[in-house]
Amino acid sequence: MSDAAPPGASFDAGWLALREPVDHRSRAHELVPLLTEVWRARGWATVVDLGAGTGSNARYLAPRLPGDQRWVLVDHDAALLEAARLPGQVGRSERRRGSLAREGLDALAGADLVAGAALLDLVGSAWLDRVADACASRASAALFTTIYDGTISWIVPDDTAELLAAEARVRAAVNAHQRREKGLGPALGPGAASVAREAFAARGYRTWLAPAPWILDAADAPLAHALLDGWASAAREQDARHADAVDRWAAARRESVERGRFRLVVGHLDLLALPPEPGS
Fold it and tell me: 49: exposed, middle or buried (C-beta count within 10 Å: 0-12, 13-18, 19+)?
């Protein structure tokens, strides 16, 4: 469970590499200075990265954090962990293979910062509460990024009313599919960011929720094709009655991508939660 791929897509190294440049450019970069200020003031060093995959989160964040760092990468996929590449700012690292329900929660006991990218929309509220409790117990920070918010919006010249109606059905089906059980309870799906913010705020944390949408165009055609395949598969699985309409929609969108005549917005949010100020 290293990543929120479109339903139906696998979390393999190829998919993770395909999306990494878009993930990195789309982040809510303004949250990092807020984290850095507290990181430096408290002398923090250890990051626990949940659902770490091949280390994309570390490759983005480690160069932006001060000082020598220790990263603990947690993922269920041994092959992804083995392939993880970490930047030079990571002086020490540990790879822990296991489930986020066991090894993931256990790792939080040593965290100054708990991080996770493209993860929270796949988890359930009970697991999320346990993460928030673990952070609060040692005043750790949390930074969860690329949290899917339910937005899939294609901007294509000469769209027809029929195509837009089919797209609305596909989006609704994908979002329903996103809420299915993913191994950590019924998934929060598009509501994950607000639930997570409330969970940390209830424990006295200061929270920031910022938009971090993917905005794709012709230069991102391979990623757009992969998303299309995953969404169409999920929509057919969720509601087989509209399979033919989904196929027509996907074919039309695929043609637009191949012609380079499209813009695609996939909504994501980034959440930063910082512990209360000492003495507050």
Answer: buried
Q: Is residue 231 part of a domain?
A: no
Average pLDDT, the chain: 93
Q: What does each C-alpha distance from 37 to 33, 112, 116 come to in angstroms?
A: 6, 13, 20
Tell how far CA 272 is from the center of its chain.
13
CA 70 to chain CA mean position, Å: 22
The 10s digit of each residue's pLDDT in 39-53 is: 999 999 999 999 999
Closest CA to 143 of 118, 107, 179: 118
Residue 228: name the closest of 203, 194, 254 by CA. Answer: 254
Residue labelled with tokens 């339903």: 7
CATH number at residue 101: 3.40.50.150
Number of domains in the chain: 1
Residue 148 lies in a domain: yes
Rounded-to-integer distance, Cα 69 and Cα 100, Å? 22
Q: What is the pLDDT of residues 109-161, one digit of tens each?
A: 999 999 999 999 999 999 999 999 999 999 999 999 999 999 999 999 888 89
- Nearest of 135, 273, 113, 266 to residue 196 by alpha carbon: 273
Rounded Cα gap, residues 227 and 153, in angstroms:
12
Domain that holds residue 136: 13-152+183-214+267-274
Q: Is 77 part of any domain? A: yes
